[in-house]
Amino acid sequence: MVDTTRARTRRSGRREVRPALARDTIVDAAVDLIDQRGVEALSMRNLGAALGYEGMSLYRHVDGRDDLLEAVVDRLTDSLDLPNEPPPWEEYLTDVAAQLRELALKHPRIFPLVATRHPAAPWLHPPLRSLRVVEHLLRTLRAQGWDPGAAVQAYQAFSSFLLGYLLLEVAAQGEGTAPPEARLDEGTDEDDDLAAPGTGRDRDVDVQNYPTITELRPVLERADTTTEFNAGLTALLHRLAHLAPG
């Protein structure tokens, strides 16, 4: 992560000390800025100041604030450490859930963006919305004998559980679950007017490098959210029946 204290331009004799600009450096600094001040503070001007550059300099590496928010979400959701040889599915899902919970609690001001930003395709469910992670999860389930429909339902139910629970846990820390992305803490920046407006993500996402997603995409795309909701509710009621008196 970028040391924003050191990153701010300062003089050592006649030399300025600041990091070289690159997309990864800018995204790291954006993560730090949101962690410290909230998403409302993220502007190209503020981020440039944290790095010791004019805000306009950042446009050589990012397309604007909207592109930067996407990169921040991708950085969070794509950072899970997935095993080369997955354990049995119960242990595997338990580990994925624990890692994601750790990320949510470490970055409570960023995690709500995972829910509010449009995923790359409508059949990708937050918070497990990274193509790399979804490919690995579905491939693991298929390799352990799950049929296509069951694997997709497991992914969807698992994602829904994680999203609902972790948003509640983040909210309990006093963080909003739907941050006002368009607000800036210093008003509108002139250079931010150049940022491309948020128009959602490409629904025809390229998945050719993800063979399991390619195989299961028809199942993912025809998923019935009503059926998924009812199945989840039935499972919850079944669990509560064991707790009910009599």
Q: How is the secondary structure organized here?
A:
Elements: H1 4-7, E1 10-12, E2 15-17, H2 23-37, H3 44-51, H4 65-77, H5 89-106, H6 111-116, H7 131-143, H8 148-172, H9 211-221, H10 225-241
Antiparallel strand pairs: 1-2
Helix pairs in contact: 2-4, 5-8, 7-8, 7-9
Question: How would you describe this structure to a colleague?
Answer:
Helix content is 53%, strand content 2%. It is built from ten helices and two strands. The longest helix is centred in the middle third of the chain and has 25 residues, at 148-172. Helix 5 (89-106) runs parallel beside helix 8 (148-172) and helix 7 (131-143) packs across helix 9. The chain starts with a helix and ends in a 5-residue tail after the last helix. The chain has helices spanning 4-7, 23-37, 44-51, 65-77, 89-106, 111-116, 131-143, 148-172, 211-221, 225-241; strands spanning 10-12, 15-17. Mean pLDDT is 81; it is low at 3-14 and 179-200. By secondary structure, the chain is mainly α.
The secondary structure category is mainly alpha
Helical stretch tally? 10
Number of strand elements:
2
Query: How far apart, in Å, are the first and last alpha carbons?
Result: 55 Å
> Regarding quaternary structure, how should these chains be classified?
single chain
Uncertain regions: pLDDT < 50 for 5+ in a row? 3-14, 179-200
Fraction of residues in helix: 40-55%
